């Protein structure tokens, strides 16, 4: 992926959102500050209830902040009037988890809807709709109704509709969570192409770290209404700081231990140690285990691992088992070679 420009298309400054409730208010967002880089893809990841959907809905004014400031393309959303908000929304497209298509309209009719609402003339609507349907690969299905489409095709219609007003910002509300893995990859590839070809800023929310890995330039991790960690996606994967981030990363391919090993791990003990080694950049292809054996005489057995690409750079994890008494020497050696390690426990 290409690096995103440095300027921000969306900024959140000390943003809070509270909901009134009997006996007091509940905070959905608590003093959130975040910059979403123009022309890039930023992911916000968090568990259910973390506040990520509320954060997204502040961007186009579907919700209003209780405190703080939200700016989109240099305009203050928190202070926008009805007319200003309608103008802003033409620059902000949105795709939804459950598609939100009109059942009585064809693909063509669903994509045309935002243009009809905006009063765009018929010939211009026809031109844009035809171009967008071709862009998302549905040219042969333009006259079909939603009931005749697969989930992935419906989401492509949703993406085309979101692009109809030629927005500068695209919001994605869990756009792939209702799709199977193969369809998810196709939709993510389409979003990557749109970002690259149209220069759109994309802000997406997800609960899947694999989605962040596959598409995002930047990521913000949310928990209980706050951002607990943020940075470039590669840096977050290579060196996560917060326990919440590490818990999300533990489910990504290459970091999951076989069940028969995971069930035997204890946090302490004298049994064989389980060590996770993180490789980043040039170190991703280093023959580290053979060096441990040859230079230190430490035997380590591989339990799992993978090397993949994040933002155009190699990244990998390797989980190994070794004698507990060898652990300090092994870690010192690996750290000296700029490799990050994490002791997962000991086999009981």
TrEMBL record:
CDD domains from the UniProt entry: ABC_MetN_methionine_transporter
One of the GO biological process terms: amino acid transport
One MF term in the entry's GO annotations: ATP hydrolysis activity
InterPro entries with a match to the protein in the record: AAA+_ATPase, ABC_transporter-like_ATP-bd, ABC_transporter-like_CS, ACT-like_dom_sf, MetN_ABC, MetN_ABC_transporter-like, NIL_domain, P-loop_NTPase
UniProt keyword Transport present: yes
Domain ABC transporter, chain residue ranges per copy: 10-249
Cited Pfam families: ABC_tran, NIL
Domain of life (superkingdom): Bacteria
Gene3D superfamilies: 3.30.70.260, P-loop containing nucleotide triphosphate hydrolases
Any one cellular-component term (Gene Ontology): plasma membrane
PROSITE patterns reported for this sequence: ABC_TRANSPORTER_1 (PS00211), ABC_TRANSPORTER_2 (PS50893)
SUPFAM superfamilies linked: ACT-like (SSF55021), P-loop containing nucleoside triphosphate hydrolases (SSF52540)
Keyword list, A-Z: Amino-acid transport, ATP-binding, Cell membrane, Membrane, Nucleotide-binding, Translocase, Transport
Functional summary from the UniProt entry: Part of the ABC transporter FtsEX involved in cellular division. Important for assembly or stability of the septal ring.
Family, per entry: Belongs to the ABC transporter superfamily.
Name used for this protein in its record: Cell division ATP-binding protein FtsE
Species the sequence originates in: Paracoccus salipaludis
